[in-house]
Amino acid sequence: MPPVSSFLRTAASYAWRLLVVGAAVYAVFAVLGRFHEITVALFLGLVTTALLAAPARWLGRSLPRSLAVAVCLLGTAVLLLGGLALVGEAVAGESTTLVREFREGLGSIEKWLERPPFRLNPGALSDIESRTGAFLSSHRSTVLSTALSGAGQLVRVLAVLALAVFSAVLFLHGGDRQWSWFCAQLPAAVRERVAVGGRAAWRTFTGYTHGIVLIAATNAVLVGLALYFLGVPLAVPLALLEFLAAFVPLVGSPVALAVAAVVALASKGPLVAGVVIALIVVIGQIEGHLLHPLVMSWAVRLHPLVVAISVSAGAIAAGVVGAVVAVPLVSVIWSVYTALRGTRPGAADVS
Predict the structure, then answer these.
(1) Does residue 125 sit in the same domain as residue 234?
(2) Rounded to 10 degrees, what is the CA torsion of 149, 154, 156, 159?
(3) Cα(169)–Cα(53) distance, rounded to whole angstroms?
(4) How far apart are CA 180 and CA 188, in angstroms?
(5) How confident is the model over 87-113, as a mean pLDDT?
(6) Is 19 among the domain residues?
(7) H helices within the chain, ranges in order?
(8) pTM of the predicted structure, to 2 decimals
(9) Under DSSP, is residue 291 helix (H, G, I), strand (E, B) or coil?
(10) Closest Cα partner for 105 from 220, 226, 231, 223?
(11) Which of 5, 81, 124, 334 has the greatest number of beta carbons closer than 10 A?
């Protein structure tokens, strides 16, 4: 039997390692998708901890630790509820005008589609509307059961929020002590490496969280101001949608701006909708070439191809949860690998 070449040995050794890594990554995303409620709750708890750790530490200099954590969490809850109340008031205040503008906009869109090059049959949109009404009437029981199942979904959402708040309280109050206790239970041979990896992971996650929140807030302000000056209704809710969508890299912001373009098309016509579409391109360029390189400089910077693959793999394995968690997870894994590579005997120090 001829001897196996060194090239094949090297290729085989790398191949089985890549297979193991791929299986491990798939298993992680599969677990995230299977227990997505717990995953979302813990992720929100970690995000809240990363955002409020510095304010809680600052307040802890003059207040008891428990009181400082309570003040931070209550202040955050007041800000969130105030923002939701502002959005609700904006929607309620513009509802009558919005309905009228949408009706007029649909009429103008229909007339526009009847002209070249589309040459849509007259009354096609009205026919679609009548068919939609007939479908809802014939499937009233299905729609009602779907609405009733929304009550169960509401209970699950409240349970997730309660677990997220509970996790954030524990992490803020004694997360460092919990981590020290965990490291102390490990064998002495791996204790230091686990501690180094944990510090690198938390530093990267904190940097990523601060950066993505700042980028999302900047995008939301830009979108809100642009829609306001263009006269597009629901500028505040659409800006909030842009803020939330920015947490899904690459695809979230364009999807939110596409919704804004549809609203602009129905309420203000094709010209304003075209301006909003141009806004999608401009904000995408600002985010990709200015905000991400500047704001994410303190976190692990990943190549855009790695970000795209991570988001796609996360969405395939675990849906929206996987798409949101994928990039910070990959960033944390890479930072831990980099930090541990520097702790091997004879390895160079890393800053």
Answers:
(1) no
(2) -160
(3) 11
(4) 13
(5) 64
(6) no
(7) 6-34, 36-59, 65-114, 124-138, 140-184, 188-230, 235-245, 252-268, 270-286, 292-295, 304-341
(8) 0.71
(9) helix
(10) 231
(11) 334
Contact 301, 285 (CB under 8 A): no
Tokens for 210, please give them: 């601060």
Tokens 């401009």, residue located: 282
Number of domains in the chain: 2
Q: Find where tokens 């070249």 sit.
A: 116
Cα 298 → chain centroid: 19
Token match 């391109």: residue? 281
* 131, 261: one domain: no
Q: How long is the chain?
A: 351
Per-residue pLDDT tens over the stretch 11-62 = 777 787 777 777 776 777 677 666 777 878 888 899 999 999 889 888 888 8
Q: Radius of gyration over alpha carbons of the chain, in Å?
A: 25
Both 203 and 219 in one domain: the answer is: yes
Question: Whole domain around residue 180: which residue ranges?
Answer: 35-185
- Closest to 125 (Cα-Cα) out of 139, 111, 136: 111
Rounded distance between C-alpha atoms, residue 198 and residue 214, angstroms? 24
